[in-house]
Amino acid sequence: AAQHYWVDLSEQHLYLHAQAGLTLFRRILGEVYNQTLGTYFPDRVLPISISPPQTLAAVLDAEFSDIQFLCAPKSRRRLQAAAKLRGLAILENSLAGERTQPSDHDLRGYISDVQNGLNWTDLFPGIATLNLETTGTGFSVSLRLTKSEGEPVRLVGEDDPNATVVGVRRVNELDYYSLGMAQLSTHVGLTQPKCLAVVRSLKLQEDDEYFKIIRIGSQQHKRYSRKTIKRIQDELPGLDMAEVWRLYKPSGRLQR
Fold this sequence. Notes:
- By secondary structure, this protein is mainly alpha-helical.
- The protein has helices at residues 12-33, 56-70, 78-95, 104-115, 120-123, 173-176, 181-188, 192-201, 227-235, 241-248; strands spanning 130-135, 142-147, 211-216, 219-224.
- It contains 10 helices and 4 strands, in the order αααααββαααββαα.
- Helix 2 (56-70) runs antiparallel to helix 3 (78-95), helix 3 packs across helix 4 (104-115) and helix 7 packs across helix 8.
- The N and C termini lie far apart (84 Å).
- Residues 1-12 and 136-141 have low confidence and may be disordered.
């Protein structure tokens, strides 16, 4: 008799074996007998459901229930809870534009929040804005993560009396503008003077996406983002370097 198997999300190998077996029987039944598994079994008893969850929230609710169980008092499985939370934290950071791994201190903080009763929507508000869209029929399923439609927003000035602060995020600008002229020229394969001439010809110093002067104390540092590398590499084949050098060559110490 067919049974419905619940697969622990942490045991991915069991899921893969079950999926592979189901796929094999489906192929044999379809290619040899021209029939489908659905002819003999209702959806609810198949080892791997052919009806995927319609919302990402349902998947995360199940995952977070496992995390809450692992973080229960007197439980000695906090390492497993931290492993599950790490994946969610990485996804949350990536949605915020950060490419950082959560530290052990961060994970301990998440575990403490779980023990204090916070839900995953409180811990990971960015993930809570995602939707899960499913398309296809039978066993072929396509998944796509999309941003939920939120409230309309607009940029306002700091002195706008009608503006209300809804969130403040502090960003280390040196992480974004991480390149000096020496590093930038090395990446694009040019000398520093020629690289500066190309930067000036493309007017990259007039675009905050590529360039910013960062002040630290009394000193000013001219910094470039990593997007500048790709922009120069894309534009370089179409530039007349002799003409660029004639019009934009730097003077002073950098040229010498």
